[in-house]
Write the C-alpha cells for this entry.
Amino acid sequence: MKSLILLLPCLLPGPGLVEGQSTCCPTKVVKGMNGLDDTYTLADGKKPPSADEGVCADGCVYTRTNPDDAGDEYCFKNMQAPGSVQCQDATTTPSVTNLESQKSALENEVTDLENEVRNLEADETDANTLNTELNNVDAKVDELTADATTPAGRVRRQDGPTTCDEIADIIEQIADPNKSNAERLTLVRQILATKITRCKSKDKLTKTKVKIKTVKTETGERIKIILKKRPKQRQILRRRKS
C-alpha cells in the first residue's frame, strides 16, 4: 500500500478527519501535491495492513481515480506538506458555480416549455381555422364544377389561382402530409381568393376534390393530438416554475 502525505489536520479545510475519528471521509480531493493530485475514494471494508497501522492516521483506505498502477491503495498520514486536502461528503454544500449552472439550465427548460406551449396553442388555432376554411373550399369547388347552361367568365387576380387546374394543383399541395397546419391554411386561402366563377375544364378539379376530405380527417386527428399534449406540457411548466 502506498502512503499519501497529508497536511496537518488543523490546516485541513472543510470536514477533514483527524486521528482517532471513527468515520472515514467518503471522498478526498488532493491539490498542490505534485504527482499526488487526484480524487481519492474510500475503499469500504478495507483496513491498512498491520505494518501501516501506525502510519495511517485515520485507519481509512482509499483508491485513486488515476493511479500510477492498477490496484494501488492509499492512506493518509499527518505530516506537514504543501497543497490541500478537501473532504467531500454527502452534506457538502454545492458550489455557487454549480447552483448557477443548475439555475440556468432550469430557466432554459422553462423557456423551451413556454415556447412549446405557445406553439401548440398557435397550431390548434390554425388547425381549427383550417377545418372551417376547408369546408369553404369544398363548397367553392362544388360551385365551380357545377353544371351550367351558360359558362360564366372569370376575372384574373394576381393573388389567387386563375384556372380550376391551378386550384387542383393547390389542393394536391394541401394534401401533402408534411405540410403544417399553418402552411395548409395559407394554401387554402389562396384558393378562396380566386375570382373564378365557373370551370371551363373541371375534370382535374373534380378528381382532386376528394383529397379535401382526407385533409379534413388528418386535421381532426392533429387537433386531438394537440389537445392531449398541451395540458401535459402546461403541467410540466407549472412544476418547473414552482
Q: What stands out?
A: Residues 5-21, 149-158 have pLDDT under 50 and may be disordered. The chain is about 45% helix and 10% strand. Residues 96-145 form the longest helix (50 residues). The first strand starts at residue 2 and ends at 6.
